[in-house]
Amino acid sequence: MRTETCDVLIVGGGPVGVTLANLLARDGVSVIVVERDIEVYPLPRAAHFDHEIMRLWQELGLADAAQKAARPAGAYEFRNAAGQVLLRYDMPANAPGGWAASWMFNQPDLERALRERLAREPTARLLIGTSFEGFESETVALYCQADEPFRVEARCIVGCDGASSPVRKALGIELEDFGFDEPWLVIDAIERDASGLPDINLQICDPARPTTCVLMGPGRRRWEFMIRPGEDPADFLTDSRIAELLKPWVPEGAVEIDRRAVYRFHGLLAYQWRKGRVLLAGDSAHQMPPFLGQGMCSGLHDAANLAWKLKLVLDGQASEALLDTYQTEREPHVRAMIQTAIAMGQVVCATDPVMVAARDAGMLAQRAAGKNPVPQPTPAQGPGLFRPDDAMARRMFPQFGRFDDTAGPGPWLIRRGDHPNLDALLCGHEAVLVRPDRYVFGAGEAAGLTAAYEAALTSTPFACSLAFSSRTGGA
Ligand SMILES: Cc1cc2nc3c(=O)[nH]c(=O)nc-3n(C[C@H](O)[C@H](O)[C@H](O)COP(=O)(O)OP(=O)(O)OC[C@H]3O[C@@H](n4cnc5c(N)ncnc54)[C@H](O)[C@@H]3O)c2cc1C
Predict the structure, then answer these.
(1) Are 310 and 30 in contact (CB under 8 A)?
(2) Which of 97, 222, 229, 268 is 20–30 Å from 294 (CA)?
(3) What is the pLDDT of residues 304-337, one digit of tens each?
(4) Domain architecture of the chain: domains with CATH
């Protein structure tokens, strides 16, 4: 049987796997991505990414491609059955990542741009039509391409193989279930005449049929309809049923249906994200309902967190213990996202008339009192390779203008006076040390920061005392 070799083997060529491969290959790591399918996933999935993810596309030189595939989102409203506004988020045109807060896009367009970029990397190979069959050992995986088996020997393997993750299953890793499970019909359409269609993103919290209507990339629209208990999901995929559901929304001939699918929206989190030299990232490690538009975004944060750590460990510049900080940092962030997405889903999906009346009364009273929530900063990462007890650590460092392009790949030691917008942020500190994934390691005296960062890379002392709190299911 033939054997292929590489530093990092990535199982799954979805957005998370191919982003991770791009980041590693840009830094000279040899990568093989194996992908079961030939084409990018054809059914409707992500429609939204945020400013932090646009910053990641910028880092990969894909900001132009992303802007072509996306449009900034203006507002997100929750309305009740009577059309009253229960909640409204106005999305800032300038968010801390240096881009508009919120972008609506078409996932396959971005996945193609990621694959095209990867094809230009001399140290990366994407093997399509290739199925992961199992592990021979911790660092050898077995594959099949066009019925011909072969082996891949790698120093590290990352399972980015999606919700049903054969890698996660082969490792025997279980999922924590957050107890949310709702079937929805998802329809993607191409606009023929957008003049009569909503120009903001909407959640219609109508107990008779909870509905989502959002923009996507240029010229595209998404509708989602909750399937109520007792209804047959298969009935919802027919042309006639879809036409009936869209009738109140769409003037005759205004859109053409492109894709349709029924999904179960749920919240799941792997108890363990690393077993030795095998790691999980993206949907293989966590899934959430789409009400926050953060499922793929969370997986892309995994890729950004993992890429520089793998590079340092493979180069012998950091101890293997650095890889333990991957879960301690990422899991609390993802857990918070899952919980928020489920809380939003519970608002949208409520069908009990008493609960719905109480929800509407409560939310309308909040709005009348001027207590409309503003979009919150994304949660901090959990403890790991960060200075402990440091108020600036564990959050993403903001981008002023296109600072990242000037500064290049991190880490960065940025001193007071280096940038006019920085001094107020530093709260009296001399400097801030920013990791390669743009998260702040800590702020303080410059020499002390550098020494602490270098010591942490080789011993990861801050990570040692941290157990994976949820590995056994506890919070
Ligand atoms: C309706 C809906 C709406 C969503 N909206 C949003 C949103 O607005 N914003 C957002 O951020 N996220 C959203 N998401 C979530 C987002 O689509 C996923 O989180 C994202 O696609 C996961 O990416 P991934 O790379 O981890 O996995 P996937 O995209 O699932 O990729 C996994 C890949 O692994 C491959 N694979 C599987 N098994 C094997 C094998 N044995 N061998 C080789 N390859 C294999 C698969 O073919 C696949 O290509 C939404 C999801 C849905 C369903």
Answers:
(1) no
(2) 229
(3) 999 999 999 999 999 999 999 999 999 999 999 9
(4) 2-68+106-176+270-333 (3.50.50.60), 403-459 (no CATH)
